[in-house]
Amino acid sequence: MSSTTEQATGARTWSVAEHLDDILTAVQPLEPIELNLLDAQGCVLVEQVTVPVALPPFDNSSMDGYAVRAADTEKASDASPAVLTVIGDVAAGSSGTELTVGPGRAARIMTGAPMPPGADAVVPVEWTDGGTGGGPVRAMAPHSASPEGSGGQVRVHRAVTPQAHVRTRGGDVCAGDVALEAGTVLGPPQIALLSAIGRPAARVRPRPRVVVLSTGSELAQPGEELAAGQIYDSNSFALAAAARDAGAIAYRVGAVTDDAETLRATIEDQLIRADLLVTTGGVSVGAYDVVKEALTAVAGEAEPEEARAEPGEGEDGEEEERAFHGAHVDFRTLAMQPGKPQGFGTIGPDRTPILTLPGNPVSSYVSFELFVRPAIRAMMGLQELHRPTVRATLLPPHGAGEEAEQLTSPEGKRQFLRGTYTGGERPEVRPVGGAGSHLIGALAHADALIVLPEAATGAAWGSEVEVVLLG
Ligand SMILES: Nc1nc2c(c(=O)[nH]1)N[C@H]1C(S)=C(S)[C@@H](COP(=O)(O)OP(=O)(O)OC[C@H]3O[C@@H](n4cnc5c(N)ncnc54)[C@H](O)[C@@H]3O)O[C@H]1N2
Ligand code: MOO
């Protein structure tokens, strides 16, 4: 760690970068698994995929029309159409070997249908009379209504060159080509290719399962009646949504009351389905700060390394306790606002990473963006861990003039204010709402964080600031 700050209390203060560094050092990319294509969406491929069969797998028509020998159309024109005998239909899905197109002949062919032997080009139906004996048509009549269209004669009004409107075998990808490199993120186009070459599944790093758990005896769930002194639990919703947005599978656990035993039991229950645990609230210095109490006590009771390394040993009951008591969570004070009190560590038999975020709604959300989102993305094996950061000119809030009170920032802390960003040639950002970490209304209207560095005590309108784009 590069820098530390001693506070008046003598307690060490961590920088944002130090805390993030520790988290990213501790979390590991998840073990790869084979997932069905749609479950693999957004995941990182860990295998190099080669093409087993050429695409297209056979020469086929790119138009609805007539498969012909190009030479037969050489002199065709509106004034003097080439007249060819129609020997049948080739529909998509047919094997393409039933018909052979000889000189003076044509087969009616549909888009994607295999080129019949003998034919070397396709005349789009719009360049023909469609077998009607009149002028050029705009479309074929449905086979069910006009079965005679697959026979008779067709007048071709324009010449085609060999291979016209033919998609050749291997014209897209060839057998043996590298379809996708390991490390590719599977978006819809990559899933298109994998399915097109016949792969039902791919080997990827899975999405982490993130359990979001809020704490606080004051919390009611949306939809319930609020009793005196209660507020609605917004953190567990906001962070479950943020976890999904980061790429995780999120499990939201409703609020746990400020009781250490209940919290421990809940965490133990959740460990089974968690690759990462996130809690909110209860990490400050109050008498009911339950997360700190529950996990500090556990860490204090921790058994020696050897014992913790073998959670399966011992009598029933004892096992579970050991597993849980393997927790080590480091509660820290960070030089940032909001988001000062933070905790990070591991818990349970699998040493599941746990991040304990502060309870104030804006604090928990900003903390998530800065620490949990990169952790999730690192577990997915993604290269891009962070939100994009840009420089922008700081302007007064919408509706306010230059005389508006300028931004201030506590010295020694990195401040993250909510803002609205406008891109373009001269990017601009305006603060929205104040610095209070309870201001959810303003957060909901922000699409950016304005970053004022540790050394700054404020920022003047018109100055250039760093901006994190929330997307
Ligand atoms: N004496 C001190 N008091 C506080 C300090 C300090 O240094 N000394 N730090 C303040 C800061 S900064 C923060 S941030 C908070 C963090 O406190 P906790 O993490 O212990 O969070 P709680 O006390 O549980 O809650 C804080 C606040 O947020 C509301 N809250 C909590 N959970 C939710 C939720 N799921 N949905 C909506 N709102 C929630 C809660 O009701 C409180 O108002 O501590 C300061 N205090
Ligand atoms: O640091 Mo607290 O997270 O400002 O409100």
UniProtKB/TrEMBL annotation:
Family per similarity comment: Belongs to the MoeA family.
Domain MoaB/Mog: 211-378
InterPro entries attached to this UniProt entry: MoaB/Mog-like_dom_sf, MoaB/Mog_dom, MoeA-like, MoeA_C_domain_IV, MoeA_C_domain_IV_sf, MoeA_linker/N, MoeA_linker/N_sf
Pfam families cross-referenced by the UniProt entry: MoCF_biosynth, MoeA_C, MoeA_N
GO cellular component, one term: cytosol
Family matches, as Gene3D superfamilies: MoaB/Mog-like domain, MoeA, C-terminal, domain IV, Molybdopterin biosynthesis moea protein, domain 2, Molybdopterin biosynthesis moea protein, domain 3
Protein name (database record): Molybdopterin molybdenumtransferase
Molecular function GO terms recorded: metal ion binding; molybdopterin molybdotransferase activity
Purpose: Catalyzes the insertion of molybdate into adenylated molybdopterin with the concomitant release of AMP.
Enzyme Commission number(s) of this protein: 2.10.1.1
SUPFAM superfamilies documented for this protein: MoeA C-terminal domain-like (SSF63867), MoeA N-terminal region -like (SSF63882), Molybdenum cofactor biosynthesis proteins (SSF53218)
Origin: domain of life: Bacteria
Pathway connected to this protein: Cofactor biosynthesis; molybdopterin biosynthesis
A single BP term in Gene Ontology: Mo-molybdopterin cofactor biosynthetic process
Catalytic reactions of this protein: adenylyl-molybdopterin + molybdate = Mo-molybdopterin + AMP + H(+)
Names of required cofactors: Mg(2+)
Keywords, ordered alphabetically: Magnesium, Metal-binding, Molybdenum, Molybdenum cofactor biosynthesis, Transferase
